[in-house]
Amino acid sequence: MRVRDLVTELGLEVIHEGDHMDDPVEGGYVGDLLSDVIASGRRNDVWLTIQSHENIIAVASLKDLAAIVLAKSTTPHDETILHAQREGVTLLRSNLTSYQLVARLAALGVSGDR
Amino acid sequence: MAASTHGPVLFRRSFKVVGSDFLNAGSVSKDIKKALKQLNVDAEVIWRALIVSYEAEMNAVLYAHECDITLEISHSGIHLVFDDRGPGIPDIALAMTEGFSTATREMRERGFGAGLGLPNIKKTSDSLEVTSTVGKGTRLDIHILFPQAQSKAA
Ligand SMILES: Nc1ncnc2c1ncn2[C@@H]1O[C@H](COP(=O)(O)OP(=O)(O)OP(=O)(O)O)[C@@H](O)[C@H]1O
Ligand SMILES: [Mg+2]
Predict the structure, then answer these.
(1) Domain residue spans of chain A
(2) What is the CATH number of domain B22-153?
């Protein structure tokens, strides 16, 4: 499953396409604490968060995450979008909660198994 | 004695972080990632180095006025030093405790302040030495060994 397929399957809003729309989604992580995500996020994970500040972009970029999905209609700050553009990070959004998103991702075969 | 890198330095680079500069926060870690990738460093080692450098860089941004960073690579591993001018850490053992944080409300709103940064650095590196003088600054001296160097040391 590629990021672009996830967008279609889950009806995600594309805030910034970035460079990862054709990356394979290999897993996922949920978290709003940056120290937690920097330690436990893996390459090609989709990251579900309600954290809207620009610092999420550096984390996604450093960890080569497939995409950030802002859950619960979280509105990103202008700086966050600017950073996503600068770093080529794929920034998506959903009105579903992180829990609901996990349930749907699991149904699509995206597990958190490492 | 904690594990440390040794042998001639093959690569050295310096960086600077300015306190409270959230807009560029993470850029030093990004440069370190780029350098390690260009030098074909093992992916697992890069992964560890990035956790360490991100946490140390963000602490410098959050708590210090400015910070000098040096990255050195030898055959045995990576040596990172973060040397800042700032408030210092009054109780290092307490600061190293998971969950301890003096982060402000604004910092927490940004997703910082879990009190996991220093413990993550400790866990992810092969050695971490913290020295600090209150009112002057803090220095982190960190070694990450390459897998073959690690097995030799073991
Ligand atoms: N360079 C530094 N200068 C002064 N104080 C520091 C420095 N680094 C860490 N500290 C102190 O140590 C505490 C613990 O740091 P640590 O990185 O473990 O957690 P945190 O930064 O509070 O939260 P997190 O890293 O999870 O976002 C900080 O809250 C701060 O009080
Ligand atoms: Mg920290």
Answers:
(1) 3-74+81-107
(2) 3.30.565.10
Query: Which of A32, A34, A26 is CA-nearest to residue A6?
Result: A26
CATH class of A3-74+81-107: alpha beta
Query: What pLDDT digit, counting tens, does each position of A12-70 carry?
Result: 999 999 999 999 999 999 999 999 999 999 999 999 999 999 999 999 999 999 999 99
Q: Beta strand A27-30 with B127-133: parallel, antiparallel or unpaired?
A: unpaired
pTM of the model: 0.96
Q: Which amino acid is at B94?
A: L
Which two structure tokens, joined as six digits, stand for B38?
């260009």
Gap between the Cα atoms of A106 and A27, Å rounded = 10
Q: What is the ipTM of this complex?
A: 0.95
**B112 in reach of chain A (CB within 8 A):** yes
Q: Whose CA is nearest to atom 9 of ligand 1?
A: B59
Of A36, A54, A55, the CB nearest to B114: A36
